[in-house]
Specification:
The structure is a single chain. A hairpin with a 5-residue loop joins strand 3 and strand 4. It is globular and about 35 Å long. The chain has one domain. The protein is an all-beta fold.
C-alpha cells in the first residue's frame, strides 16, 4: 500500500487550520459544528476540512466532528 500525503496549513494570524487529504477540485460545505467546514470533491467524497477560530477549541480535547 502506498503512502498517503496530508497537507496541513495553519495561519496563526487568521486563527485558521486546514487539512487536505487530496489535491483535487472541490468545494467547502458546512458541518454540524459552526467552525468546521468539510471540503468535498464533485462526487461528494471528503477531501479535507478547515477549522476557523481554531484557538477556541483549546482545552476541548478531543474535538469530534462527523464528516460525510
Amino acid at each position: 500500500m502506498g503512502k498517503t500525503t496530508v497537507r496541513v496549513w495553519f495561519d496563526p494570524e487568521g486563527d485558521f487550520l486546514e487539512v487536505m487529504f487530496a489535491d483535487a477540485p472541490g468545494y467547502f460545505r458546512e458541518t454540524a459544528q459552526d467552525q468546521v467546514m468539510e471540503k468535498v470533491d464533485m462526487t461528494g467524497a471528503v477531501i479535507g476540512f478547515s477549522i476557523m477560530n481554531v484557538s477556541t477549541f483549546r482545552g476541548q480535547t478531543p474535538v469530534e466532528v462527523a464528516l460525510s
